[in-house]
Write a sequence for this structure.
């Protein structure tokens, strides 16, 4: 299911992504839009009070310049993983006083010239950073595909103890609200996570289908769609593995919209 590809870690991402964030730091949305392809697609939400709101879609550089974050928040990139076609980034929006006001995640595709051809931007309230970002681990990590396959298989079958066994004992699990009007589901440790799966999430017919993924070291991103329920949307997850290959940090983002891939 999760055929995870290896990518390159670069905190600034590929040049086009670095250009976007550098220009936005200076309030230059028009300059930032130059890093997009002429026919690019940018899917985003302008509903700050509803992280799972449907995406709006801006097409072309002029519309994208008007849709990018304004000067009241500065996006700060925390991690980027990319290859020659795909890119994932996670970071924070920071207000003029330096406070983190939201965490954002991009799943992007690059054209043959390295420009951004398609970006799906998701965000939520600020989440805990990965310990690997401040203290990178030199030794190679295990492939995230196997543990993700086990996790999604057991979760889909409502085999919650087996699903929880895919996570480290000190896991941080941060998930969009399972139901409208409820807060994000944040669980620390296996006991909280099991209780959350049983009593907060519960059994559901939803199934996660991974459509894109990249990993470097212990850090991994996946994009997917949710099947099995009416109008299932898109999700992006940012995760970190521990030394044994279990998931230590799992942060998910969701929208009921599906942004077309290029």
């Amino acid at each position: 299911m999760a055929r995870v590809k290896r990518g390159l870690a670069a905190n600034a991402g590929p040049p086009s992504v670095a250009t976007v964030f550098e220009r936005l730091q200076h309030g230059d949305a028009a300059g930032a839009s130059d890093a997009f392809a002429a026919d690019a697609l940018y899917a985003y939400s302008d509903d700050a009070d509803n992280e799972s709101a449907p995406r709006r879609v801006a097409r072309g550089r002029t519309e994208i310049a008007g849709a990018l974050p304004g000067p009241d928040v500065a996006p700060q990139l925390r991690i980027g993983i990319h290859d020659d076609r795909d890119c994932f980034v996670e970071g924070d929006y920071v207000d003029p006083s330096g406070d983190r006001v939201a965490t954002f995640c991009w799943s992007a595709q690059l054209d043959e010239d390295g420009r951004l051809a398609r970006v799906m931007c998701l965000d939520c309230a600020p989440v805990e950073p990965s310990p690997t970002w401040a203290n990178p681990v030199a030794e190679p990590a295990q492939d995230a595909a196997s543990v993700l396959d086990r996790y999604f298989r057991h979760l889909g079958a409502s085999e919650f103890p087996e699903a929880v066994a895919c996570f480290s004992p000190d896991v941080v699990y941060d998930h969009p609200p399972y139901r409208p009007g409820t807060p994000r589901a944040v669980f620390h440790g296996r006991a909280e996570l099991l209780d959350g799966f049983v009593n907060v999430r519960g059994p559901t017919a939803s199934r996660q289908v991974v459509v894109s993924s990249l990993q470097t070291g212990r850090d991994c991103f996946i994009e997917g769609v949710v099947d099995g329920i009416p109008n299932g949307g898109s999700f992006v997850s940012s995760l970190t593995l521990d030394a044994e290959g279990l998931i230590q940090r799992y942060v998910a983002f969701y929208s009921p919209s599906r942004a077309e891939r290029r």
